[in-house]
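To: structure desk
From: M.T.
Subject: fold request, one chain
Message: Could you run this one when you get a chance? Sequence is below, nothing fancy, just the single chain.
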Amino acid sequence: MANDFEITFHGLEQLQARLNEVRARYPYKEEEILLKLGATLKASSKEKTPLGKHKKHLRNQYKLSKVQYDRDGSFITMTNTSPHFHLVEKGHQIVGKNGQEHGFAQGIHMVETSMIELEQTLSETLGTWLDSILGSV
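Reply: Done. Structure tokens follow.
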């Protein structure tokens, strides 16, 4: 039972227009910043992922995809291949061997927190990157 969730960014229309200009002139530059932002998200998520008796391998299961393209632009995805990742991220019921419920384990929200942190610095990071790209034109 995997619960999929998606976090999107809003209010970046000016940056999107500038990104479209960079995409037209330098398509490989967009890949560079996507990979850099993906690596930042992955590192932040790994740092927040708990190490425990049963979770020690959870930290090493984060994977970044290659840059993928659609008609609106390009994107990368980050996944965690651990089968119990969603339980740690979102929380779960604690059930004993006899089937009796013993409470609820709160989720740690390591990826969600990392996405929020990335969103807070995204406009500044992209603005600086775009200024360096477009300033050299």
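Reply (cont.): The two ends are 49 Å apart (CA to CA). Let me know if you need anything else for the meeting.
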